[in-house]
User: Fold this.
Amino acid sequence: MQHMWEVDHAYYCHGNNYYSNECVFEFKSWQDYIAEMGDADMDYNLIFRWDWKEPKEDDDGNPIVFNGDVNYRNAILQFSIMHQRKGRYVVNLIEVCRADEPAVLEYLKPRWEYMKALWSPFE
Assistant:
């Protein structure tokens, strides 16, 4: 399996909502996100997409090479979420490090199973 930061989805999901200025929620760490959203209802907060974004270039256009410190918070994890009951699209932006990946995967697994159940009878 690829690491989350190695995945480059074929198409982007916008980081804001065309119809609302109150749609982006930022978290300084994975721990902060879990403290606030860890037990969020999956119906009301349907995560339909994630994107782990590590910078590829610095401000001068030079390639950035990973420095080997898995605890260095150098990425943004974007969760694209539908508030199904309200029909509202929101984005959660979480500052993450590579060491957060196992916890992120554990969090997403039941949400993936839930998403598949919504698409039943497809498997």
Summary: The longest strand covers residues 75-83. Residues 4-118 form one domain. The CA atoms of residues 116 and 123 lie 7 Å apart. The chain has a mean pLDDT of 92.
